[in-house]
Amino acid sequence: MLPIKILGTGIYAPGNPINNEELKELANIDFDSEKTEKGLGIAQRHIAHLRGIEETTADFATKAALNAIKDAGIGIDDVNLFIVATDTPEYISPATSLIVQGRVQGKESWASSFDISASCASFTIALDNAVRVMATDESIKHAVVIGVYNMPAYVRKGDAFGYSIFADGAGAFVLTREENSNSKYINGQLLTDGTQWDYVGVYTGGTKNPVTEKVLKEKTQGLLNNKPIPSDRNVRLWPMVIEKLLSKSKAEIKDVDHYIFTQINRSVIKKVMAAIDQPLEKTSFVMDRYGYTGSGCVPMAFHHAIKEGKVKRGNKIVFVASGAGLAVGSNFFIY
Questions:
Q1: Which of 11, 176, 200, 203 sits most deeply, having the most CB atoms within 10 A of its CB?
Q2: Residues facing residue 84 across a β-bridge
Q3: Domain 4-180: which topology?
Q4: What is the pTM of this model?
C-alpha cells in the first residue's frame, strides 16, 4: 500500500445540457433516441461547440482542476505535479498539462507536468502513475490528475453515432501524501492489446497522416470507426481485470464497497455487476447526465458518488476503464 490520499475532487462540463431531441436539431442528425437512452443510458450531454461556447480541452481541464483544488482546500502554489489524461489534447505539442499548469499557477514553478494518452483508459493509468511518482519523490506533496475529453471536436458533420455518444467534460483529483491516514492506494492492474489499434480513433494530424488537402477532400480527418468493436468486449474483460487486480492485492470482490466503470454503456455495467455477483447499489452511473466523456468519465462519476453520499472515507474502491487501442486500466484504493 502507498500513503497517497484523494484530498479533493472537481468536475466541469461546458454549457447547458443537450437532450437527445435537441441534439438532433443542433447537429442536424437523426438517431434512435429511445435506444440511446434505454440501452446506453445516455439522456443528455454537454458539447461546447454546439452551444457556441469557445472552450476546448485545456479550458475544461483547467476548470476541473481549479474546482478540485478548491475542494481540497489547498492553494494553487501547493501543487507540485500536474498530469492531464486524455486522447483529445489541446495540441499535439506542447502538452496540455503544461498549459493547465500555466493557467493555474501563472508562473514558473517547481512542478512537474506531463500528459498520458491511452484512449479512454487514460485517467486510470494516470492515477496509477501519479501515485507511484509521489511515492518515490517526497518533494511532491500534492498532485492534480485530470481526466478530460473533447472528442466532439473530432466528430465529423453528420456523424449521428459520434454526436449521440461522445461529449465534453473533465474530472480532476487532488492527491496528497499522508503517512498516517487510513486512505491508501493499494494496487493497479493494466492490460494492453495493441493489435486493435485500427478499430476506432483519430488517425490524422500525427506524423503518419498529417492533415493535407487530400485528407480534407476525402473527409478522412476526425473520428473514424474502421472496425466494429466486439459487443461483449468489456463484459469479458472487466471481470477478468477485477479478479487479477484483487488477487494481486490479496482481496476479494466482496471486500470492495464501490465500483466505477467506463461510462459508455449502462447495460454493460449491469451485466458486469451481475457477472461478479455484486448489487447495482455498489456502482454509479453518470452517462445519463453527461453522455460519454471518455477519460473524464471515471473521475466525474466518482465525484458524484462522493457528493451524493454513495462513497465515504474508509471505503474500498475499484476503478476499471477501457479504451480503443486496446488499453485497460484499473485501480484499487481506500478512499
A1: 11
A2: 115, 146
A3: Peroxisomal Thiolase; Chain A, domain 1 (3.40.47)
A4: 0.96
